[in-house]
Recover the amino acids of this structure.
């Protein structure tokens, strides 16, 4: 009988450890999400740029080279806006802050809130691409028929590898139905 | 050895519903997987029938997608995995000299969850809208933003399967660690027990990650989170990373126990000890560890940086080393042995050759630039069917023939077994080999229609599929015939068989075995 009890104790010890491992791995599955984002942030893989405005540092401009920055604006399928950059590309000096406007127009009959998600290509350039001002840092609301110029101020880091001559900055505007609903509820309440 | 109380078993349906006996539960797992084999196989027949000719013949494209999805899910989670758990239930206690599994009630629960899990999954076919139609890999956003309403049932089903597998593997680990007979050190355990121990650890490491990823899908779909939704700051590519972090170890979960089965069978019919026992153990462990660092080779084309692709390419190629050790060890075991070719041995030899073909096509695809051409074509379909059908499934057939006499006390019909083997061998190659060529020529997978030039190879594959599918009915007949009677098996069953289950237990193995632990020298 004592043998059996010993066996039971030994078993429940192992079971506890294994259950703990199971819970840990479930947590690890979720931890992969922030890990993935941190990994992409640090390495700049996946073309992810920071979603925070960068500090403006005293200008240290590399006057010996040009980098071409191309601009793309696109919309998710369920987004009834028009959206394009004012210029399709510009040449910048690494280290120098530059400004570009995107133009968005709401062509639907409703007021809509959108989110712009940026992406930089090639992926390796993302690390060297900082924005000091961007419409993508906050949600943007456009009333029906409203047109708006949305500025981006960006700096291409002067440490950007020599082999990268062209950087493409792309924004995709997504409809944010939850936010749109919230805003309209607020405005209803205000009336 | 055959005292009366050994064969005292409960009667009626209660014997099965409330069973805590490892042999009964093992039997139920095996039958469950057998039934699922015919359901998943039926879906494969629908797929091959539709692909017999270009153009749309039999089914709607959306239904075709549901078939590819459910076929994959059922074969992976409903056939291969439960079959191996069935083998583990039957054999692990007998091989290590334990009276039963360590946690018999949990064993019962982990089996009885399965019919509900698959009932839920299969019920989606009869729901309004459609069953899951996004492929067994359920990539976001196909399964989140664009998934049919029934996806939530699929998620629930996956949760249940996960719980069942985790309980099953906890049981296996506790049994192996705590219940070995005196004298059975870890390095004296049969290889099948070793491979299952390692598989169980893999399951515990990755099934929770699968549960996590489907939970993220569930909250994305219903509760407004955006793990995989770009508009909310999420990333659909991350779905693939998390999924394959589960998915790659999962493919080894499906193959390691078959390595174990083959390593038991080859020495028996070569009448020699297994060559390189300890290197087999280390090779299995290395494969398991490497499986955690190669997941992104499933997604070379998502746009990873060069450094990432190089890392995953080299890590993937590294797996060929321990796998090669195993193949060479099996070959060396047969070298100069007194070979006989009974059905289990035939399936095992076919396993070694055909699994190696599957391994080589895997090696081809591990090369990143080449994979860009093969990605999502029939080449990958050929690859994973070679490793899973002629690999895992053939090992299951081999194991079933090998231990059926021990389980039932009767020899199976050797002639019919050989017929089953030879027809399966020829038809499975007619079925899957042309798919390599189709893939190289650019035929995409999961598409119900194809360009005219692919017709010949598709017709070959379909004919092979119908024969291969049909001949499995013969296997069902052989198993039933063997259970109902036949030439009595000796206790040792096979001349060269070794291990506690053959040396110390009568055939059929009594309902309760090893109530007194045997001494292992």
């Amino acid at each position: 009988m004592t043998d059996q009890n010993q066996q039971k104790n030994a078993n429940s010890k192992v079971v506890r450890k294994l259950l703990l491992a199971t819970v840990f791995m479930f947590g690890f599955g979720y931890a992969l999400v922030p890990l993935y984002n941190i990994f992409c942030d640090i390495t700049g893989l996946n073309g992810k740029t920071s979603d925070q405005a960068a500090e403006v540092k005293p200008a240290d401009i590399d006057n010996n080279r040009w980098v071409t920055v191309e601009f793309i604006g696109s919309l998710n399928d369920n987004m009834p806006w028009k959206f394009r950059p004012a210029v399709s590309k510009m040449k910048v000096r690494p280290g120098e802050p530059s400004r570009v406007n995107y133009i968005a127009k709401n062509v639907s009959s409703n007021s809509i809130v959108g989110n712009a998600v940026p992406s930089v290509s090639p992926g390796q350039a993302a690390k060297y691409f900082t924005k000091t001002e961007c419409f993508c840092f906050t949600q943007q609301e456009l009333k029906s028929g409203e047109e708006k110029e949305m500025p981006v101020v960006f700096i291409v880091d002067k440490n950007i590898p020599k082999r990268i001559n062209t950087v493409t900055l792309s924004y995709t505007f997504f409809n944010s139905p939850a936010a749109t609903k919230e805003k309209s509820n607020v405005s209803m309440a205000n009336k | 050895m055959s005292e009366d109380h050994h064969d005292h078993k409960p009667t009626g349906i209660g014997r099965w519903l409330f069973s805590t006996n490892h042999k009964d539960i093992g039997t139920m797992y095996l039958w469950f997987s057998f039934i699922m084999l015919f359901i998943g196989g039926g879906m494969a027949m629908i797929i091959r029938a539709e692909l017999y000719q270009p153009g749309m013949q039999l089914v709607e494209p959306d239904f075709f997608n549901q078939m590819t999805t459910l076929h994959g899910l059922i074969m992976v989670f409903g056939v291969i995995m439960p079959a191996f758990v069935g083998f583990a239930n039957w054999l692990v206690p007998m091989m290590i000299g334990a009276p039963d599994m360590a946690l018999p009630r949990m064993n019962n629960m982990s089996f009885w969850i399965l019919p509900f899990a698959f009932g839920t999954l299969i019920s989606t076919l009869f729901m309004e809208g459609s069953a899951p139609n996004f492929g067994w890999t359920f990539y976001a956003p196909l399964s989140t933003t664009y998934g049919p309403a029934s996806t939530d049932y699929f998620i629930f089903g996956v949760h249940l399967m996960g719980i069942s597998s985790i309980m099953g593997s906890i049981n296996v680990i506790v049994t192996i660690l705590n219940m070995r007979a005196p004298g059975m050190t870890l390095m004296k355990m049969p290889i099948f027990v070793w491979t299952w121990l390692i598989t169980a650890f893999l399951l515990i490491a990755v099934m929770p990650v699968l549960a996590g990823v489907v939970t993220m899908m569930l909250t994305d779909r219903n509760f407004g989170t955006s793990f995989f939704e770009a508009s909310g700051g999420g990333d659909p590519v991350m779905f693939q990373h998390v999924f394959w972090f589960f998915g790659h170890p999962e493919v080894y979960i499906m193959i390691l126990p078959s390595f174990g089965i083959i390593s038991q069978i080859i020495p028996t019919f070569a009448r020699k000890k297994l060559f390189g026992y300890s290197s087999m153990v280390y090779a299995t462990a290395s494969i398991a560890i490497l499986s955690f660092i190669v997941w992104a080779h499933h997604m070379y084309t998502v746009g990873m940086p060069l450094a990432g692709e190089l890392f995953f390419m080299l890590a993937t190629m590294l797996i060929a080393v321990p796998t090669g050790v195993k193949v060479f060890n099996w070959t060396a075991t047969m070298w100069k042995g007194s070979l006989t070719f009974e059905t289990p041995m035939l399936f095992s030899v076919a396993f070694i050759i055909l699994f190696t073909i599957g391994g080589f096509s895997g090696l081809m695809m591990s090369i990143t630039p080449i994979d860009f051409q093969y990605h999502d074509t029939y080449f990958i379909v050929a690859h994973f069917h070679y490793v899973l059908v002629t690999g895992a499934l053939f090992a299951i057939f081999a194991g079933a023939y090998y231990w059926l006499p021990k389980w039932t006390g009767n020899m199976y019909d050797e002639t019919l077994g050989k017929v089953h083997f030879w027809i399966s061998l020829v038809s499975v190659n007619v079925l899957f080999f042309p798919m390599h060529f189709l893939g190289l020529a650019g035929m995409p997978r999961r598409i119900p229609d194809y360009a005219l030039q692919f017709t010949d190879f598709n017709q070959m594959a379909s004919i092979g599929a119908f024969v291969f599918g049909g001949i499995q009915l013969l296997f069902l007949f052989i198993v039933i015939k063997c259970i109902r009677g036949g030439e009595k098996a000796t206790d040792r069953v096979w001349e060269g068989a070794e291990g506690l289950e053959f040396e110390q237990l009568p055939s059929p193995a009594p309902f309760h075995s090893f109530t007194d632990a045997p001494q292992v020298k």
